[in-house]
Amino acid sequence: MYKYQQLYDFSRNIFLKIGCSEAHASAAAEVLVSADLRGVDSHGVARLSGYVRLWEAKRINAQPNIRVVHETPSTAVVDGDGGLGLVVGPIAMQIAIEKAKNVGTGWVSVKNSNHYGIAGKHAMMALEHDMIGISMTNASPLVAPTFSTERLLGTNPIAVAIPAKNQPAFVADFATTTAANGKLEILQRKQQEAPLGWVQDKEGNPTTNANAAKEGGSLLPLGGDREHASHKGYALGAIVDIFSAVLSGANYGPWVPPFVAFLQPPSDPVGEGIGHFFGAMRVDAFRPAEEFKTHMDNWIGRFREAKTIPNQEKVLIPGDIEREMEAERLKNGWGLHEAVIKDLEALGEKWGVRL
Amino acid sequence: MYKYQQLYDFSRNIFLKIGCSEAHASAAAEVLVSADLRGVDSHGVARLSGYVRLWEAKRINAQPNIRVVHETPSTAVVDGDGGLGLVVGPIAMQIAIEKAKNVGTGWVSVKNSNHYGIAGKHAMMALEHDMIGISMTNASPLVAPTFSTERLLGTNPIAVAIPAKNQPAFVADFATTTAANGKLEILQRKQQEAPLGWVQDKEGNPTTNANAAKEGGSLLPLGGDREHASHKGYALGAIVDIFSAVLSGANYGPWVPPFVAFLQPPSDPVGEGIGHFFGAMRVDAFRPAEEFKTHMDNWIGRFREAKTIPNQEKVLIPGDIEREMEAERLKNGWGLHEAVIKDLEALGEKWGVRL
Prior knowledge:
The structure is a homodimer. By secondary structure, chain A is an alpha+beta fold. Chain A has 2 domains: 1-63 and 322-355, Hypothetical Oxidoreductase Yiak, Chain: A, domain 1 (Orthogonal Bundle), CATH 1.10.1530.10; 64-178 and 220-318, Ribosomal Protein S8, Chain: A, domain 1 (2-Layer Sandwich). Helices cover 37% and strands 15% of the residues of chain A. The first copy, chain A, has 10 helices and 10 strands. Chain A has helices spanning 4-17, 22-37, 48-56, 85-103, 119-123, 181-190, 230-246, 289-304, 320-332, 338-351; strands at 67-72, 75-79, 105-113, 131-137, 158-162, 170-174, 199-200, 206-207, 218-219, 274-282. A 7-stranded mixed beta sheet of chain A has the order 1-2-3-10-4-5-6. Chain A has a 3-stranded antiparallel beta sheet with strand order 8-7-9, with no helix packed on it. The longest helix of chain A has 19 residues, at 85-103. At the A-B interface, strand 3, strand 6, helix 7 and helix 8 of A face strand 3, strand 6, helix 7 and helix 8 of B. Chains A, B: Belongs to the LDH2/MDH2 oxidoreductase family. Chains A, B: Residues 196-219 are annotated as: Disordered. Chains A, B: This is Ldh family oxidoreductase. Chains A, B: Keywords: Oxidoreductase. Chains A, B: Pfam families: Ldh_2.
């Protein structure tokens, strides 16, 4: 079992070794390990060596000059200068929050960034300010639009965090595909089949092969097929792509650079790096925060008490599972997959950092 | 075949008869008939008599004092004063646009309104200003959250309109359910079955009975079931509900009043009327509009040319189907369902308005 502080310190020390400042290394480690804490193991320390390999390939800048290149009272475009998305994300979200303090809301589109960890972590920064937080990002193309065999969109997640009073916050955080890639990786490791509607093969046929996307196939947009409204998942993924990258000047669609160092970015980029989009809305820009939060408690309470289907689980509020996981893992620690442990140990050995 | 002008004039005259001002009657008729034009027949003149019956039941105010009750430079809450959503919607969206002119973006949450027609029409108001438009609304509860048998959410649509340069605009407009209620109504009329994943029966079992939601069952959130990520559709519907109603002070969840006059609103309201949420983002609050729109053309062109699955349709851009329908119907007119014609004729007779 591993504890939060141990993995945070290890990650932070690795980020320091590749040249990050103290502040950036702390921010990056906090975002990275928050994914493990919340049970999104695919986005946590399992990816640490991937970030380092991208830095080794000179595709991540460990000492970026992250700056606003255009702004209005409620908007900004941030140039991430090729930095870690784990660092660029919190800085851009903080700018959205500051703008919301001034004019009610703040909206920041980011270019020239990299993978930013879990979407929800950034959105949740708004909560302590009694703001609604929004976070989305584009990502390497893995998803085929409805009717296509081509991978043109990433799993492009959307996160929305909404504060409540006595109830815990509402925190939705989801890929705009039927299944996040992390869920497929779990099936791949267990050599299990995927439900129909998660992936298609390279000819565009429905398949239960959990490895289909690695064999020329694609992940499917939320909905799965046309009859079940995959055009809606495709539209959602497209909106995330456009807000994150066409608004900011990042790469979009099939031009988004891959997260892995062994694949080269497209030779004909249409922008810089990958893109994110952040929003912050001050609750009291609409109605008194106490009033809003009291009604959120009522909303949450009513949905939590909804009548359930016999023999099924209780109705959940978005964020329930991750919050319970976080409490459990903070207290008792958690196990890592054997391959991840080996990977971290090799990384530690290479850089002289103790796990 | 019916022509646009004929149905617009008829609808406008009916709205005048129930006491709407000239300006309000024009706005309402334009929004209403735009749904027919775009092929969303369920939201067009088929609903005209429904609005009148709600007015007869004193649940719609034909002479509302629509006003801003709270604002910041980038936000407002609008009180619709019980008016037609068809009238409140464009006024609130215009306020969002004005705020975007001033500070980059504008965000308006609306309470005390009624059904506002098709979501996309309002979002598209932003396009001529080189802005991105966003429109969403809550609605009478028909949808069960994942694991529940209770109808706690409406079909809560989201629309996002994004301008391009030479390409037509990107206009996504979709219910956050697998299928909009209008699609079920078509199956009901044809006495056909629904695909699994659209509805469940009153015990929460999957069913192909297209009438299930009328028999105590529910529509299902986008995704359909837990294995296909209905929790994501549920989260989207919940976000629409909260932005539209908890932010503004409208009714939310199961407290949203029904659109039909023969059902009474809940006796314990938690707010006023139904709620909407509008957003406008000036493209040049992020980057020069020409640059953005040129990249949107590139985005759209690339997706439109995507390789297709053999024997399937071409890849579509959100809004393609509705735009082609609009061009066709503007030119040649369109047919109405027999029941709708009878309904309109009866309405015309009652109010002395010629169809």
